[in-house]
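To: structure subgroup
Subject: Chain for Friday's discussion

All,

I'm putting the inputs and outputs inline so they're searchable in the archive.
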Amino acid sequence: MPGRRVDPSGGPRVKLSILGGGGFRTPFVWQALLRDTGTPRVDRV
């Protein structure tokens, strides 16, 4: 598909935006993303 971004590993690229003030929850979200071992997994933050 023209204009569709694909990750170098061959899968689709997905962007996640964390909206809002963040506060104390933001570090927990980042840690959860980095510890994710599911498929497909987050490999760049």
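Points worth raising on Friday:
The radius of gyration is 13 Å.
Residues 25-35 form the longest helix (11 residues).

D.
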